[in-house]
Design goal:
The complex is a heterodimer of chains A (about 525) and B (about 160). Helix content of chain A is about 25%, strand content about 15%. Chain A is an alpha/beta fold. Chain A has one domain: FAD/NAD(P)-binding domain. In chain A, strands 1, 2, 5, 6, 7, 8 and 16 form a 7-stranded mixed β-sheet that branches. Chain A has a 6-stranded antiparallel β-sheet with strand order 4-10-11-12-9-15, with helices on one face. Chain A is globular. Chain B contains 7 helices and no strands. The chains are: A alpha/beta (about 525), B mainly alpha (about 160). At the A-B interface, helix 2, helix 6, strand 4, helix 9 and helix 10 of A face helix 5 and helix 7 of B.
């Protein structure tokens, strides 16, 4: 079986790999996806048990270095103020993502032209627009039509409930005259494609037991498998192999028993996102690619962008029941998203209003930060925070810098002995100023909303490196980019990259909707070019 | 502390368990209305044993150290001190070497706020989120009128 040749081999079953697999399935080609993790069982997610907060902090911890599931690989992020967080399994990091789903703006694709920084993308918002819509319908996205901060679009499902918390912040934004809107969310608020609606369980970022969060395992994969795609789990790819004509011949991988296989393929698609993809390419060395596959530009692994994240917490006298509802989805403000150079930085950030903490989360944060004391004052302090707090996240656009990069650690390996990634990242002055501005404006918003106490949290948050972008950027110049404008490697004509690694810039919002739109766009380009795919 | 907590397979001595119970009560005492128990009255040690082997490894030695410090300062064991003396001693240790006490406090509240009595006292049902979920109001969309009135804010590219 393993050495039969397949038409398309996809590495990685997360957000982008799943979308590409579904889209290409209608070609009737033989498509196989290799995923190093396994299927998750929602019945075993923490929120099904009384000890859910204990389990969430351990087995579903966002860092693979803490979680240490057998299917994880370690990441050396000691040389970065922001830790890398992800998940490995069918669905990838969508298993743990908050499902906050705002789209990139048109300006995000034209930062060089508009602001003189970084580079323009070789594609634009309106090229991706039909793929945003296709993705919204495929997975089930909720939202409210008419957001004036983004070109008009129509989310297929009603918006996530704002609750008293969202209304409170909305009034605050109104008082300041700022933009705000209910967030697009990849959470179904009505039954959709055989899945039942959201029940406001709360801890979306520990896996959704209800199946209402549109993670790739329960949204795309059932459709892709029904269409004939073969998904092999617990298959960890070590390297992509090539011939002397610079064409990929397949991949070498380890199965669950550690047995090595080679799978031949006509086309290889890598969908391991901004850390996993460069890791695999850099591990795929050969005589013709001594510095890593598809790396004649020297840019594989460079330009890592992470979205430095700030946080402001507001405490309110009135009970907001803010501990209820989808943890990461409520409303957003994009008042400071577009560039205004009077602010002292270029580009901008999104303000993401997220729910207050659950009981243990509130107490642990309060003990750690000193806002909940030991002793007699403990209960009053807890009561003042629990259900009375609103969190405002500041998602800063991170501009590409070549020195921020993914390399291979000289010593650290995964359980199969494959070299692990090492992250080297420093925060730019532009990002520092943006974070400071966001913290100040976040505090203003909290005060306007009626917060009796505003608590800034040291930024950037360390455990917040969810958005892994830019390490194999797309472009038309082979010396300045890794893949072309439709995801094909400049150096290896049957190798495609479809994940966040191809992003030229990072925008200032959670990227998964744009990652999936790009993946669907690349799949569509492949289908339109099938007759001369390798020309 | 419950009988279950101090079973024969307990890794702590009777004296250590007594000291632990006092420290837990200093972290989270019972509420004055009696609705919330003291942390000494929930199974913190069971939680630590089940989930925090690192904390458990040091626990006995740290409790012994606290007791020894009490004897050195006051000539009697920690359990024999009055509440203010206990608090002052623990505060000094927290200030000098905060790591262990901070971790113990974190584990204490992790266990405490998953206890049925505590959850009910803070207004929650003692159940997991799934499958019942929670009700959250949709929200008043007329609040968006000023945002709509202001009009488009995205930048032409």
């Amino acid at each position: 079986m393993a050495d039969d040749i397949v038409d398309v081999l996809i590495v990685g079953a997360g957000a982008s790999g799943a979308a590409v697999a579904w889209s290409l399935a209608d070609t009737r080609m033989r498509i196989v996806c290799l995923e190093q993790g396994g299927w998750m069982n929602p019945a075993e997610y923490p929120s099904t048990g009384r000890d859910w907060e204990t389990r969430a902090a351990k087995e579903m911890h966002p860092s693979p270095n803490v979680r240490k599931r057998p299917t994880d690989y370690p990441i050396n992020d000691d040389e970065s103020p922001i830790a890398i967080v992800n998940f490995n399994g069918v669905g990838g990091s969508t298993i743990l993502y908050s499902a906050h789903f705002p789209r990139f703006h048109p300006s995000d694709f034209r930062v060089k032209t508009l602001d003189g920084v970084a580079d323009d993308w070789p594609i634009d918002y309106f090229t991706l627009e039909p793929f945003f819509a296709e993705n919204d319908n495929n997975i089930g996205v909720s939202g409210l039509t008419g957001d004036p901060a983004i070109p008009r679009h129509q989310p297929p499902l009603p918006h996530i409930p704002m609750g008293r918390m969202g209304e409170t912040m909305g009034r605050g934004f109104n008082q300041l005259g700022w933009h705000w809107w209910p967030s697009d969310s990849a959470i179904i608020t009505r039954p959709h494609n055989g899945r039942d609606k959201c029940l406001n369980l709360g801890p979306c970022n520990t896996g959704c037991a209800q199946g209402a969060k549109s993670s790739a395992d329960i949204s795309y994969w059932p459709m892709a498998e029904r269409a004939g795609v073969e998904l092999r789990t617990h298959c960890r790819v070590r390297e992509i192999t090539v011939d002397d004509r610079d064409m990929a011949t397949g991949v070498t991988y380890f199965d669950a028993d550690g047995v090595e296989h080679h799978q031949r393929a006509e086309v290889v698609i890598v969908a391991c996102n901004g850390v996993g993809t460069p890791r695999l390419l850099l591990n795929s060395t050969s005589a013709r690619f001594p510095d890593g596959l598809a790396n004649r530009s020297g840019l594989v692994g460079r330009n890592l962008m992470l979205h430095p994240w700030g946080l402001v917490v507001g405490h309110f006298d009135e009970p907001l029941k803010s501990n209820f509802g989808p943890q990461g989805c409520c409303i957003l403000s994009q008042e400071f998203y577009e560039t205004d150079t009077d602010r002292g930085f270029v580009r901008g950030y999104n303000m993401q209003i997220t729910r207050g903490g659950p009981p243990v989360g509130t107490a642990r944060a309060g003990i750690a930060q000193g806002t909940i004391p030991w002793g007699e004052g403990h209960h009053d302090a807890f009561d003042a925070l629990f259900g009375h707090s609103i969190h405002l996240g500041i998602c800063c656009e991170d501009l590409p810098e070549e020195h921020n990069r993914v390399t291979l650690d000289p010593e650290l390996t995964d359980t199969n002995g494959i070299p692990a990634p090492k992250i080297t990242y420093t925060l730019s002055e532009n990002s520092r100023r943006m974070l400071d501005h966001g913290s100040q404006k976040g505090a203003e918003a909290m005060a306007a909303a009626g917060a009796v106490k505003v608590q800034p949290v040291q930024s950037p948050l360390r455990m917040a490196g969810w958005h892994l972008l830019g390490t194999a950027r797309m472009g038309t110049d082979p010396e300045r980019s890794v893949v072309n404008e439709w995801g094909r490697s400049h150096d290896v004509r049957n190798l495609f990259l479809v994940d966040g690694s191809v992003f030229v810039t990072s925008g200032g919002v959670n990227p998964t909707t744009t990652i999936q739109a790009v993946a669907l766009y690349i799949a569509d380009a492949m289908k339109r070019n099938l007759a001369n795919l390798f020309d | 502390m419950t009988n279950e907590l101090i079973g024969s397979d307990n890794p702590l001595t009777t004296e250590q368990r007594d000291v632990l119970a006092i420290v837990l009560d200093l972290i989270v005492p019972a509420s004055t209305d009696g609705r919330r128990p003291s942390a000494a009255d929930v199974d913190v040690l069971g939680h630590i044993r089940a989930t925090e082997s690192g904390t458990l490894d040091n626990l006995g030695a740290e409790l012994d150290r606290l007791d020894a410090e009490a004897r050195e300062r006051h000539g009697e064991g920690f359990a024999s001190l009055d509440r203010e003396m206990r608090r002052a001693l623990v505060d000094d240790i927290r200030a000098a070497e905060p790591s262990f006490m901070r971790n113990l406090a974190i584990q204490t509240v992790t266990c405490y706020y998953q206890d049925d009595r505590v959850l009910e006292a803070i207004g929650l049902e003692a159940r997991p989120p799934f499958p019942k979920g929670y009700e959250v109001p949709s929200g008043d969309l007329t609040l968006l009128d000023p945002v709509r009135k202001r009009g488009r804010v995205w930048r032409e590219a």
